[in-house]
Amino acid sequence: MAVEKVSLSLDPELVAEAREVAGRGGLSTLVNDGLRLRLQQLRVVRLLDEMDDEFGAAPNGIAEEVTRTWQEYDRRSAG
Length: 79
What we know:
Elements: H1 12-22, H2 26-55, H3 60-78
Helix pairs in contact: 1-2
């Protein structure tokens, strides 16, 4: 896989914590994975916005159920 070296300005506290948890992959892998996830989230949000524009917003009951399910999944995957 090709890589590109970049320079970033980050909060020192975040860098220190990231280095502690980065493990064998190192800081570059952690940042790369985090950036990949964030971009994926933004693509999903953009898709949902487009779907809302085309089909209308999901009814509140469904939206709330999806939010609860997503939060439950996040709690299980974080632990």
